[in-house]
Amino acid sequence: SLPQALNGFVLVVTSEGLIFYSSHTIQDYLGFHQTDVMHQSVFELIHTEDQPEFRRNLHWALNPPHTAEGEPAPEVGKSLGSSAVTYKLDQLPPENSSFLERSFVCRFRCLLDNSSGFLALNLQGRLKFLHGQSKRSEDGSALPPQLALFAISTPLQPPSILQIRTKNMIFRTKHKLDFTPLACDAKGKIVLGYTEAELRMCGTGYQFVHAADTLYCAENHVRMMKTGESGLTVFRLLTKEKRWKWVQANARLVYKNGKPEYIVVTQRPLVDEEGGEHLRKRSLHLPFTFATGEALLYQSAHPLPGFPPPFQSKGKASKSKKPSCSHGGCSQQNGIDPSSLLSTVGRQDKAAY
């Protein structure tokens, strides 16, 4: 099944639904990094409607414990691991039995911008014993090895030629909720030229964004915090060689236990002509002069909610290239909050423009 393995990723899921192992290629299909999913519940990744089907396939008889005949049902809230206690090992079919083969389809959450939020995957594999877990039951006795699902997950629809061609250039970055960079994949390091340490060094990540694009990016950032997704955003990133690289990006919130945990951004490099075309279209829709990055939004005699009095009293809001995006007030030095967009852009090397 080598060709399958090349067009997919390996997944090992324990009987209680924990991801015991995932190959790093999960990132190419779902956008999640290998370390983001390991030892997490697989059900956080699966479409609500498909969770019962996945649960059934984790059980050796396609029959989760609470419906088992002639056996007491486990208490509500107990994990599927309780099936190990309910059934004796000698009642299970031999490990090479065709009863343990699995082939089924589930929709998985997908962070990539060419999906609708979910990707249908065909999971093909079998249940096998997961050895060396040394788990113990409530009374302290050692539990026998559990059956776990070992499967190769492949997209239901084969990727198009265009996707295969552009996949080689697409890179992904991971950010805190304020956009501070946390991680960048190998392709991103090649495109931008930075090491991960250099990306994480200082600032909210806006110090890598062209001054004329920061308000546009910040607006989509706010949209993502409200809706979970930024939509396609085209802007310029500063490379290590002090050049501007156009990218088309889509940012998505990743939730953990119902709360936003971090941001994953999928980015595709564009040629300058494509970027310039997007810039022309953008300037038709928004009241900004994007050639210089100056904003017309703040030419207002009305008080600005959220900005402390020192910022307004100077009467410079309309001339400022960037508004402050901080809610915490301004620092004493020049009255500019160090975490504001204006301060972030001010730290850039002017020679890059």
Describe the model:
- The chain has helices at about 1-5, 25-30, 35, 50-60, 85, 160-165, 185-190, 195-200, 215-225, 270-285, 310-315, 340-345; strands at about 10-15, 20, 100-110, 120-130, 145-155, 170-175, 180-185, 235-240, 245-255, 260-270, 290, 295.
- The chain has about 350 residues and is of the alpha+beta class.
- Among the domains are: about 1-60 and about 100-135 and about 145-165, PAS domain (Beta-Lactamase, 2-Layer Sandwich); about 170-285, PAS domain (Beta-Lactamase, 2-Layer Sandwich), CATH 3.30.450.20.
- It has a five-stranded antiparallel β-sheet with strand order 2-1-5-4-3. A five-stranded antiparallel β-sheet has the order 7-6-10-9-8. It has a two-stranded antiparallel ribbon with strand order 11-12.
- The protein is elongated and about 75 Å long.
- This is AHR protein.
Q: Which properties best describe this structure?
A:
single chain; 353 residues; alpha+beta; Beta-Lactamase; 12 helices; 24% strand; PAS_fold; transcription; nuclear receptor activity; transcription cis-regulatory region binding
Shape: elongated
- The CATH homologous superfamily of the domain at 2-62 and 98-134 and 143-163 corresponds to PAS domain
N→C terminal distance: 51 Å
Report the CATH C-level class of the domain at 2-62 and 98-134 and 143-163.
Alpha Beta
Based on DSSP secondary structure assignment, what is the total number of beta strands? 12
* Main sheet: strands, sense, barrel: 5 strands, antiparallel
Output the radius of gyration: 25 Å
Q: Might you state the CATH topology name of the domain at 2-62 and 98-134 and 143-163?
A: Beta-Lactamase
On the 0-100 scale, what is the average pLDDT?
A: 76
Q: Which architecture name of the domain at 2-62 and 98-134 and 143-163 does CATH use?
A: 2-Layer Sandwich
Order of helices and strands: HEEHHHHEEEHEEHHHEEEHEEHH
Walk across the major sheet and give the strand order: 2-1-5-4-3
GO molecular function, one term: transcription cis-regulatory region binding
Keywords: Activator, DNA-binding, Nucleus, Transcription, Transcription regulation
Pfam families: PAS (PF00989), PAS_3 (PF08447)
Domain PAS: 1-65
